[in-house]
Amino acid sequence: MDKKTKIWIGILLAVVALGLLGFLALSRLGGGTVAVITVDGQEYRRIDLSRVSESYDIEINTKYGHNTVRVEPGRISVTESDCPDGICVAQGAIDRGGVPIVCMPHRLVVKIEGSGIDG
Amino acid sequence: MAKTRKLALMALFTAIALTIFMIESQLPPIAPIPGVKLGLANVVTLTAMLILGRREAGAVLAVRVLMGAVFAGSPAALLYSAAGGFLAYLVMCLAVKRFDEKQLWIVSALAGVAHNAGQLIACVWIVQTPGVLAYAPILAASGVITGCFTGFAAMYLVRALQKSGK
User: Residue B133 belongs to a domain with what CATH number?
Assistant: First the structure.
């Protein structure tokens, strides 16, 4: 194996390692209790998850499609979607900022930020 | 290569790429992370680039992306896959001459990262939420891994095609 190949193996391994570490760090980082649901960049709903005592569902119907968002005490998830890949449902629940839930085909983002309803 | 032969091969490559793309879109996602997929159709783009040339590979890719969106996706999906495909193609064109054939998997890994970068940029633009950039690290890692995989597949395919006299 020549030197150039070895250098590139090193670079690519570093990208993979840093990427995985970065993602793990990000998904554990970030506080906040306020869930913000946006469609097409427009705020759709804002919920303070620390004040939720009973779970409920929000049905989101837009021109892009349908999603069901489940709001639970302290966490939020997408439980139903008629998008082709279903990745937003597979992502499960989030309980902190860091990494948002994204449904790319429906332009839907569910993220958690700040604390307090104005935060 | 005769013009007719080239045209026939381009059509064949496009059909194969589209079929692979359609089948992959029916499979369950390999990870619950938006944007992470094997991108098997890229094997065909790379192979076309080595056997036919850069422009021909670009044409195969463009037709596959367009028709893939018509058959399997939505207008939003077209934007994601066009942005990813275009950036990956640019990187492939620049890299393919700088590496020899045994290093094709490196070209493909770089193209994989570029593809995911393009897709993420399109996503930030479409959903208007910079928060999705949190996916940048994992998409870089997945671009390298899936890119290596498709790169090795393309490398062996090109070898086999050359051995069999095309």
Answer: 1.10.1760.20
pTM of the predicted structure, to 2 decimals: 0.90
Q: Domain containing B129: what range?
A: 3-25+36-163
The answer as to whether B30 is a domain residue is no
State ipTM.
0.87
**Nearest-neighbour CA in chain B from A100: distance (Å):** 6
Give the C-alpha separation, B85 to B114, whole Å.
8
Using a 10 angstrom Cβ sphere, with 0-12 exposed, 13-18 middle and 19 or more buried, the burial of residue A104 is buried
Say if CB A41 and CB A81 are below 8 A apart: no
Minimum CA–CA partner of B146 in chain A? A16
Q: Over its length of 166 residues, how does chain B's per-residue pLDDT go in tens digits?
A: 789 999 999 999 999 999 999 998 888 888 889 889 899 999 999 999 999 999 999 999 999 999 998 887 677 778 888 999 999 999 999 999 999 999 999 999 999 999 999 999 999 998 888 889 999 999 999 999 999 999 999 999 999 999 887 5
Count the domains in chain B: 1
Q: Which is it for the CA torsion A19, A20, A21, A27, positive or negative?
A: positive
Q: How far off is chain B from A11, nearest CA to CA, in Å? A: 10
Facing B132 at nearest CB: one of A4, A40, A109: A109
- Residues of chain A contacting residue B80, judged by C-beta atoms under 8 Å apart: 104
Per-window interface: A 61-100 vs B, CB < 8 A: 64, 84-88, 90-92, 98-100
